[in-house]
Fold each of these.
Amino acid sequence: MKKSLLFALALVCSVMTFAQGADADWRIHPDEAQFKIYGTFQTTFPNGGIAYELTNVEPVGLSFPVQPKYLGGETNLGNVYFTFDRVTYPQNKKPDLEHIALWVFDESLQRWVPDEETGNEQVNATNTNEMTVVLVLDCSSSLSEQGFQDVKTSAKSFIDVMLRASNAGNIHIGIIGFSTMKQTRTLGIQPLTAYSASQMKSFVDNFTQGNGTALYRSFDDAFDMTKEYAKTLSKFSSASIVTFTDGLDNGSINPTKKIGSKENYFKYIKSDVLPKSIKGIPFSSYTIFVPGGADVKDAAIENKIKGELKIMAKQDDHFFLVANTSQLDRQFRAIADELVESWKVVSCFISQGQNGKVCWTFGKKSAPAPKQVAPPAPEPVSSGRPLLIGGDLGLGLPMEFGGPNQVAGAGLDFQAGFDFAYPLTDKFALGFYFSLGGGFTGGEYYSGNYFGGAFKLSTGLLMEMGDLNDRPFLLGICPGIGYGCSYYASYIPFELRFGRVLSNNMYITGDITVGAPLGSPIAIEPAIRIGYNFGHNVKR
C-alpha cells in the first residue's frame, strides 16, 4: 500500500513538472520575437536609499518616446516594474500585450535565459495618463439635412468609443461646431465619463447650421483651448484635434491676433500652430473631407481643399477623403480606435536581483506544425498517345528543265494537305498524307517564252518517330502515287517529306519532289508546310 502511494505521488509530481515545462514553453526567445524591449537593469543605492534603474532601452516592433533612464517602482510582491507609455505599433501587426516574458542574459553561459518566476507577474498596466481630444465639426449649410445628421451621429459614435477607454475620466474631450464665427458653438474640454459623455452628445444634438465656414479660426481655437487645459493635467501625455469639413474656409479672422483674412490665417496655422508642442509633446491632427459642399464648384477648388487639409493633418495618413457623409461614422470610429490603440501603457516586471542585460518579449510561441509525411509517389500512369489528325498549308517552288523543247522555267505552287498517323507504340506512329497543289510556271524554251498553270496531286506514307507526347519527328515518302503537270512538264511524283511537331500542337515539314518525266522535261519542286494537329487530345 505504501509503495502504491509513493508511486502515485511520484507520478503526480512528474505530471506537474511536465505541465510546468510545457507552460514555460509559451515564451518567445528574444532572437525570434517580433515585439520586444531590450534594456540594462541595475539596482543602485543613492544617498542611503535604493533605486531601480533601466538604461539602454531599445524597443523592437514597438515604438515609444525612449528616455535615457527609467526609474522603476516596487510591487506588493517585491518585484520591480517599469512603465512605458505612448506605446504604438503598426495597425496590421498588433503585439500580444497579455503575454510578456522576461529574459535575462547569462554572461557565464553567453545566452538568454527565461526568468520563469517573475514572468508570472507580467501584466498590461492600467492607463492612468491623460489624453485630450477636440472635435472640430463643420456645421455649415452646405451640408444636406441628412448629411448634417450623419455628422452628429459620427461625433457621438466617436465619444462612445473613447468612453470605453477612459479610466475614471483620464480622456478629456472638447467640441467645436463651426459655421460663421458668431454662430460657432464651443463645449470646453472636460473629463470623459458616463455623465459628461451624455452632456457632450446632447451638445452635439443641439447643433444648428449656419451660412459660413470659419475652419481656420476653429482649428486655432481648438489648439489654444488644448494648450491651456493641458496646464491643469499632471499626467498629460497626448493631444489630438479631429477636424471635419465639406468645403473651403470663407470667414476666419482674429482681431486679437491681428489676422484679417483667411489667407493669412492659413499661413498662421502653418507657421505658428502646426509646428508647436503642448507641454513639450507634439500634438496629432486628423482631418476628414467630404467633397460636395456648395463652394466646391470644380476640381481645382476640391484639390485646393485637399492640399490644405493634408497640411493641417501634419502627415498624409491622417488625412481622410470620404466619398459621402454616410461613411463618416465608420471613419470617426476608426480614428477613435487608432487614438486608443496608440495610447497604450505597458508595464514590465523584473526581480530586484536580476542585474544586467534584460529583454521582455511579447506574445506566445506558436505550436510547431505537425511534421508532414510525404505520400508515396504514385505509380506512373501513361497519359496516352496522341493521334495525328492534321491539316497543312504550304508553298512550293516548281522547276522544270530539259526535254525535247529545251525548257527552263520556274513558278509558285500553293498547296493544302491532310495528314494522319496512328500510334503503334509510345515512340512510333504510322499513317498517310494527301496533298493537292496548284499554281503557275513560266520560263523559256527554244523558240521563245511561255507562261502556264501548274498542278500536283500526291499521297504517301507518313510516320511519327520519337516520344509521341514530346515533339516527335515526321517522315513522309511518296513512292510515285500521284500526278503532276505544268505548261510543258508531265510527271509522276516521288517525294521525301521531313519535319517535326512543335510544342503548341503545330508542326512544320519540308518537301522535295522529283518528277519522273512522261516524255517531257524533268520536274523538281521544293516546298515548306505548316500544319496543326486537331487530334492532339485524342489519346490511344
Amino acid sequence: MSISLMQAIILGLLCGIAKTCIPYTWGAFNFNTVIFNAVLVGAVMGDMKTAMIIGASVQLIYLGVISAGGNQPSDPCLAAYIAIPFAMASNLNTTAAVALAVPIGLLGTQISNLLYLAAGFFAQKGDKFVEKGDARGMTRWAVLYVGILRCLVFAVPVAVALYFGSGALQGVLDNIPQFVTNGLSAVGACLPAVGFAIIASLISKPKFMPFFFAGFFLIQYTKIGTIPLLLAGAFITFLYITFTANDYAAVMDDDEDEDEDEDEDDAVMEEGGTKVLTKRDILKSWTVWWFIAEVGHSFERMQAPMFTTAMNGALKKFYKGDKEKGHYIEALKRHMTFFNTEAHWGGGPILGLSLALEEKKAQNYDAIPGEMIIDIKTGLMGPLAGLGDTISWSTLMYLFIGLFLPLAQKGNPIGGIAPIVLLTVICFGIGYFLTERCYTYGYSFAENMLKSGIVNKIIAAASVIGLFMMGGLASTYVTVSTPIKFATGAYATTLQGILDSIAPGLLPLAVVCCVWGYLAKVKRNYFAATIGLTIVALVLGCLGVLI
C-alpha cells in the first residue's frame, strides 16, 4: 500500500485540526489519545480494520497521558498520524508501529512547547485591542491566528513526511537484523506498562493500591472480558463506598473568622439587582468557552484569551454604551490575566461565578472590587483543575477507552468512536450544569461543591474503579515474557514456567510496578520513564532475555 498525495494532505490537515483542540472535550481526547485518530486514519487510507488494530496497539503505550497544566509528556496525536499510516503503507506489524510511535510522540511534545511559547506574542498583540475595547480583535489575534498557526505547523510536516517518507522507511526496515526485531518486540510488549503506571500514579492513594492488584490477578486467574471486569469493579466500588461512607462526610470549617468572611462575600453577591442573563446567554457563554478553551493556549497567559472571549457577550450586556466603555475595558483586562484550569469541572464553575460577579459589579460598580474577581478565579482554578483532571481525564476517559479497546483490537471502529462520544456528552453536560448553577447561586455553590462529601465520594469511587480496571487491563495488555531455559540433567525448564507456577503474570506486573515506583518515589518524569523502559527493553530483547 502506498500513500497518495491527497491522502497525505488530508491526514496532515486532520492532524493539524486535532492539535488545535477544537472543541475542548472532543479535541482534548484526540490531543491526548490515539484511538479515535486511528478511525480517521482508517477512513482516509481505506483500510479501517488494519488502522484500528495498529491504533489499539499504539494506544496502549499512551494510556495515562493527559495535558495537566498544559504539560504533555508525549504526543499520542502526532504519533497516530505518522506511525499508523507508515505501518499500513510498509506492512509493519504492531510491535514495529509501537516502536516507531515513541520517538515521534516525544518530538511532538517539543513542537507543542515551541508553539505555546510563540502564542504568548499573539496574546500580547491581543492586549492592544483590549486597550481599545475591541474584544473581537483580541480574539482574532490571540485565539484564531494561534489556532491557524497550530494547525499549519503540524499539518504541513505530517503531509510531507507521509508522502515522501514511507518509501524511505520501507528501505530501512527491510535491512533491520533479526536481533533488533526481537528487541523491538520486547519494547512493544513492555511499553504499555508506562501508560498503566502513569494512570496509577495519577489517581491512586496508598490505601487504594490493592484494588489495582485485585484487578490484575482477577484477569490472570479467570481470563474474563472487560465487561465482566467492569461489572465486578462497579460492585466492589459500591461495597467500598458503602462501608466507608463516614470517611467522606462533608468537610466542616471551624474557623469563625473565615466563615464571617465567606458570609460577607455571599452577602455582596446577593444584595440588590436582578438577573440580566437568560439561560440562553449562559449556554452561549459556556459553549464558546467549551469550543475554544485550549486553542490559544500559551505559557504566558494559558487560557486567558479564550476565557475573555467566552465572557465577552455577557460583558457587553452588563456594560452598555459609550458611558460604560471604560468599565467594559477594565473587565476585559481583568479576564486577560493569567488563567488555567480544567475546562469542565474548573472552567464551568469559574465561568458561571465570573458572570455573576461581573453582573453584580455592573449594577453596583464599587461594591465588588475588580481584584476580588481575579482573586476568586485564581483561588478556585487550581483545586477545580485537580478535580477535573482526576475525574474526566485520568479516570473517565481511560475507563471508556479500556472498555472499548477489545473492539478496536478486532478492527471495529466502534472501539474508537464510542469512548469519544460518551466522554463528550457527559462532560459537556457537567460543564453546562456547573456554569448555570454557579451563575445562579454564586460562590457558595462552588465552595460547597469543593467541601461536599459527595465530591469526596466521587473521587474515591473513581480511584477504586479506575485502579481496578487498570489492573485488569494491564494484565491483558502488558505481555512481556522471558524465553530463558534451564537444563538440569535430562530435564529442561523455563524461567517463565517457574514464574507462572508461583503466580501468573509476575513479569508484566513487575514491569508495571517498577515504572510506577519510579514515578511515585523517584521522579514524576514521564519522558524519562518512557525512554528508560524503551532502552532497557530494547537491550534485553536484543540479548534474548525478554520477548
